[in-house]
Inverse folding.
């Protein structure tokens, strides 16, 4: 059976919390990988988005769902781009 996409507003509090936690976990892993690769900008960006999403998870009842959805979309797009990114394996002189 095909899953039907829901907006954050349509999700239960548990569903919202789970999707945000999943994205935050992925961002934190990306941040750790970026640190290992020496990419301080990516590390900072991933950490910033993860922290903001973590706050959304806690204060979702007071949060603008449209803004939270946009932030989730951006985080997921960042993760998609990272999954296709090639990191050089050796330094060229």
């Amino acid at each position: 059976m095909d899953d039907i996409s829901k907006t954050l507003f349509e999700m239960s509090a548990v569903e919202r919390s789970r999707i945000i936690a999943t994205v935050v976990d992925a961002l934190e892993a990306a941040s750790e990988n970026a640190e290992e690769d020496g990419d301080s900008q990516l590390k900072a960006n991933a950490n910033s988005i993860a922290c903001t999403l973590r706050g959304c998870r806690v204060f979702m009842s007071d949060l603008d769902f449209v803004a939270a959805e946009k932030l989730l979309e951006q985080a997921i797009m960042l993760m998609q781009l990272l999954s296709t990114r090639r990191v050089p394996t050796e330094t060229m002189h």
